[in-house]
Specification:
By secondary structure, the protein is of the alpha+beta class. Helices cover 22% and strands 22% of the residues. It has helices at 14-20, 55-60, 72-76, and strands at 2-3, 10-11, 25-29, 32-34, 38-40, 66-68. The chain has a four-stranded antiparallel β-sheet with strand order 1-2-5-4, with no helix packed on it. It has a two-stranded parallel ribbon with strand order 3-6.
């Protein structure tokens, strides 16, 4: 995991992606997004989607295919 220059975006490498588990299901992280690179949005939770809601709101209402709310690595990332 690597912190982007904006100090909010966590960039992920191949090992991180294995832990995040791209796809659908209980063991796939809702905070994994793909753009120019793969990013973890765990600490940028208030980003509003095109639907006008946050990803957390979508997850809580059951509208995400991924179901896991982060991981220990993301929770501990800023505490190093």
């Amino acid at each position: 995991m690597k912190l982007q220059k904006d100090h909010k975006t966590i960039l992920l490498d191949q090992e991180d992606l294995k832990r995040c588990k791209i796809g659908a299901g209980a063991d796939c992280c809702i905070w994994l997004i793909a753009g120019k690179d793969f990013e973890c949005l765990y600490y940028n939770r208030q980003v509003i989607s095109l639907a006008g809601t946050t990803l957390e709101e979508q997850w809580k209402s059951g509208r995400t295919v991924a179901k896991r709310d982060g991981c220990d690595e993301a929770r501990d990332f800023f505490n190093k």
